Amino acid sequence: MSRSQDDAPAPRPWTRLGSRHGASLVLFRPRWDRLVNPRTSEEFERLVLETPDWVNVVALTADGELLCVEQYRFGSGTVTVEIPGGVLDRGEEHGAAARRELLEETGHTSERWRYLGAVEPNPAFQDNLCHHWLAEGCIRTHALGLDPGEDIAVRTLPVADVVSAVGSGRIRHSLVISALSRVLDLRLPE
Amino acid sequence: MSRSQDDAPAPRPWTRLGSRHGASLVLFRPRWDRLVNPRTSEEFERLVLETPDWVNVVALTADGELLCVEQYRFGSGTVTVEIPGGVLDRGEEHGAAARRELLEETGHTSERWRYLGAVEPNPAFQDNLCHHWLAEGCIRTHALGLDPGEDIAVRTLPVADVVSAVGSGRIRHSLVISALSRVLDLRLPE
Which of A11, A41, A76, B171 gives the lowest tally of CB atoms within 10 Å of its CB? Predict the structure, then answer.
């Protein structure tokens, strides 16, 4: 399907000679791999952050509005607007995790679920996937049960406002945008 | 623009009481922040991976095909299809970095550049942005100068194939998809 430039050969997987783990970073387990570049036969050490798979949910209400979650994020140091999502529990299937995260973070449930596929949050140094799900006709069935380490507000956004919020940068988590792009046309105006 | 559920107050920024850094992870500098949740006044420690901003480029040839980069990625352990991109050098402006990465990774240059905005790779634990750029009418002007730690092949993909490659998962780096979504309609078929 693709045309090569210069007929360059397709890059091959590198050979892993060995690995060592670093101290856990709670969210991640650092791993240093010793690898050989097959193009040059030279050895390199590269970092991988081992982490479980993630999931997030494009959740639409019966009115067709998007369920959003506002929370303070420690990396950006800002209050962000995102869609519900989180980390898979050990042994949990990603569809179950999607239902659990939607319920925990928004108090909503849905009977109409569709799998939107998976992306790599960052294949350069993370070994995990983020699974995207669509939940339609969501209704509020439970109260929010926030733990002491959480401070979340649930909002609904008309779909037209979602597109403009992505364009303006008000919504700017890359994994949120990746999920939304499977349901909404996010192209910027020419 | 958004409607609140339960009139929940907007979450406020957490107060940072202090920070300590961990050993460098080359790509990242781990930082542990001691924070207070304003909703509960309880204290928590949270990890941030400090990292420079990134950039990537939706680069179209004069024929309107997308320039792609194939390379082995250490996190996923696979050969991926991505768009050119990388880390800003210290003090480098992101527009200059976009031009540099396009040239280094594909040997192409362009005279038609458009800024597509920035996203947060992951605001939960990273403090950086990824800037998206569009380069149109790209032409091959230089040879590839790969260093010993690189093994990259440059490909061109018709735009219709790009959309199907995202849908099929052949292209699945979230930051690549985020950039592409500003130029292409990536919605899945109903």
Answer: A41
